[in-house]
Design a protein that fits this description.
Length: 259
């Protein structure tokens, strides 16, 4: 079971995670975060087990109970532009903290919402924007991060990894989360301030950055390869064609295929 006392004693973030809801079991931390009344910005909802964890494209997020980190953060910015950039700012914070626990593995970000370790997925993010009329009510960053799970079932056996599998060691989830919230708070602040440094820091971490890749736009592969130039400051993806023309794509439309 997650040791909430240890976590709260070691949390050094100034506002992120200070409002904290913990559950042994919950349908989905994102669903709970959506329903909370008047949450303060920085609220953390964490569950040891989710009965209906949600992933991208209405997929399920399945993990074993009390092995991993499954949580949601609530942010209340006044605008909900640059949401992909926020997702990647969170993914980048995860990557940074993973590196402090595992200096030997190869970590990268997969556009637009995954963290990879040694070619397998170690974390996924589901960011949801909730509106109240035409105003942004909250942004929920849902994070599923594989920490101590040693066995993955079915096709996940080939595609998923945890920090414990990568290092061969059990990791303190409480310490990891305490460290992560400090880094997430820093990246959120930089996202809010539209920091150019944040974008510069994230781009080289994204798989395919600076390479000639195939782009899949709305499910269809583009015939010509393009050089992936990373995100611009709006979080849109930029790519160069052989005629040296730069195109910009909104994130929802695009996937990057590495050959
Ligand atoms: C994905 O890779 O498809 C995104 C997975 C996001 C899973 C997390 S676990 C905590 C939060 N609650 C959910 O129901 N989903 C997110």
């Amino acid at each position: 079971m997650f040791d909430t006392d240890y976590f709260e004693q070691h949390l050094a973030a100034s506002w992120l995670g200070r409002s904290f809801f913990f559950f042994d079991e919950l349908e989905s931390t994102n669903t709970y975060a959506k329903k909370l009344n008047d949450p303060v910005s920085g609220t953390l909802v964490l569950a040891d087990d989710q009965t209906a964890g949600r992933g991208q494209h209405s997929r399920k997020w399945l993990t074993t109970a009390a092995d991993n980190l499954t949580f949601s953060l609530i942010f209340t910015p006044s605008l909900a532009d640059r949401v992909t950039l926020l997702t990647l700012a969170c993914a980048s914070a995860i990557e940074d903290v993973l590196r402090t626990f595992d200096k030997a593995s190869d970590f990268s970000l997969k556009w637009p919402n995954d963290v990879y370790c040694n070619g397998k997925k170690i974390a996924g993010l589901l960011t949801e924007v909730i509106f109240n009329g035409n105003k942004v009510d909250r942004i929920i960053a849902g994070i599923g991060l594989n920490i101590n799970q040693r066995k993955f079932e079915g096709e996940l056996e080939e595609t998923a990894i945890s920090l414990a599998l990568a290092t061969g060691k059990q990791v303190s989830r409480e310490q990891f989360l305490a460290d992560l919230l400090v880094r997430l708070e820093y990246n959120y602040q930089r996202w809010l301030n539209a920091s150019a440094d944040l974008v510069k820091e994230i781009n080289p971490k994204i798989q395919g950055y600076g390479k000639w890749v195939t782009l899949e736009v709305e499910g269809k592969k583009m015939p010509e390869k393009r050089k992936f130039l990373g995100m611009n400051e709006q979080g849109a993806l930029q790519a160069l064609n052989k005629e040296l023309e730069v195109s910009t794509f909104a994130y929802e439309q695009v996937r990057i295929k590495l050959d």
